[in-house]
Amino acid sequence: MSADARDAGPIPRTGAGPRAALAWAPFLACSWTWCVGMFLPILMLRDFGWIGFVVFCVPNVVGAGAVGWFVRSPEASRRWIEAHAPVMRLFSWITIAFHGYWLGWMTRWLPFEGAATLVAWVAGGVGLSALVAMRLRGTQIAWGVWCLSAGVLVYLLATGEARPTPVPPLAPPSSLAILWLAPLMSFGFLLCPLLDLTLHRARRGAGESGRAAFALGFGVCFLTMVLLTWVYAGRLLDPDTRRGLPEMLIVVHIIAQLCFTVGEHTRDLARSPARRMIPIGIGLVFAACLAGGLLAGGHGAIDLTKSSESPALAVGEIGYRALLASYGCLFPAYVWICLIPRGGGPIRRPSRRTIAVWLIATAAAVPFLTIGYLGQRHEWLAPGLLVMLVARLFVPRSPRHSS
């Protein structure tokens, strides 16, 4: 077995048919309920209203759910991982660091501000260690995490504590802005899931029931988590929201989902040649968490409102958007240029030329995307996306016969 083949090691089966689909569906939902699904919809609601939520939700659900169809079999998943393991591991490392940064930023909103950062760090560290150390399957843990979050949703709706309507933006963007942003978000959400090691683990574990597991996992279970984000959106956007039981339950949901996602990515990294970097990775999480807390600035509620005189973003949000850009540029460009064979050939490692095309295209697109997404001049997103799309034409066609 090659070194990279260990990333696609044996996965315990969970039965067949409906049993396998039910076992893996909550795992898929929780492993994909990131600091993206728990927070980006709030920014989209703030900036664009309900249409922003739709632009986030539809390609996200479709792209992640389509992995069950696009990766046709457990064997295909193994071949994809063996061919692209280094970038898949990079995907997991950046995902872990992203969660650390977001947790540090979020502590400015958490109840009991004085001890919030310490409590969040301890909870995150203990939760991560527990998930890695426990012998329970990820599917067993996922059922508990998903039921906990679903229970928070039921409580908020049943008690009238839901705040689904966000504070209206003080400086509404142009109605054309969402038209520039939607293609780039679709590009990221439709392609990035193919690099997620946890989704590949579920595809291999579900076996012949993979399509049913992904349909249920994202069409029902993950949609429930996104609905919960919509329900508590107003509480995060309103700086005057009182601190009480609803906020504490939201914190429980966030910490549980965050620990599960980071823990499961760490579990996949631990079975690969990258396992020797696990201590470095944990240090990276805490460093990112500290950076998020320091860059957030101020105390109390997160500053998510925009000035009526200027659309400038808070420093903490700039950091969040910069990390998010990895999933709108670096990783989807890799899938588009390197992972999906041009000409329909077999799955194989990308050539040096293909890697060079990917790196050059990404570097060329970054300035446009920086001006468009961080500078909020959204029309600049179009040429950045075009650069990445056209770059595929410079990749040689794959031969249709296997080597």
Overview of this protein structure:
- Residues 297-301 have low confidence and may be disordered.
- The chain has 403 residues and is mostly helical.
- It has helices spanning 18-32, 40-48, 50-65, 67-70, 74-106, 113-133, 138-158, 177-191, 197-206, 210-237, 245-270, 278-296, 315-324, 330-339, 352-374, 381-391.
- The two termini are 18 Å apart.
Short description:
The chain is 67% helix and 0% strand. By secondary structure, it is mainly alpha-helical.
Indicate the low-confidence ranges by residue numbers.
Answer: 297-301
Number of helices: 16
Major sheet size, sense and barrel closure? none
- End-to-end Cα distance, whole Å, is 18 Å
**Structural class of the helix and strand makeup?**
mainly alpha
Q: What's the count of strands?
A: 0
Question: Please, what is the average pLDDT?
Answer: 81
Principal-axes shape call: globular
Beta-sheet strand percentage? under 5%
Radius of gyration: 20 Å
Specify the helix fraction band: 55-70%
> What is the succession of H and E elements?
HHHHHHHHHHHHHHHH
SSE blueprint:
Layout: H1 18-32, H2 40-48, H3 50-65, H4 67-70, H5 74-106, H6 113-133, H7 138-158, H8 177-191, H9 197-206, H10 210-237, H11 245-270, H12 278-296, H13 315-324, H14 330-339, H15 352-374, H16 381-391
Helix pairs in contact: 1-7, 1-9, 1-10, 2-3, 2-10, 3-8, 3-10, 5-9, 5-11, 5-12, 5-13, 6-11, 7-10, 7-11, 8-14, 9-10, 12-13, 14-15, 15-16
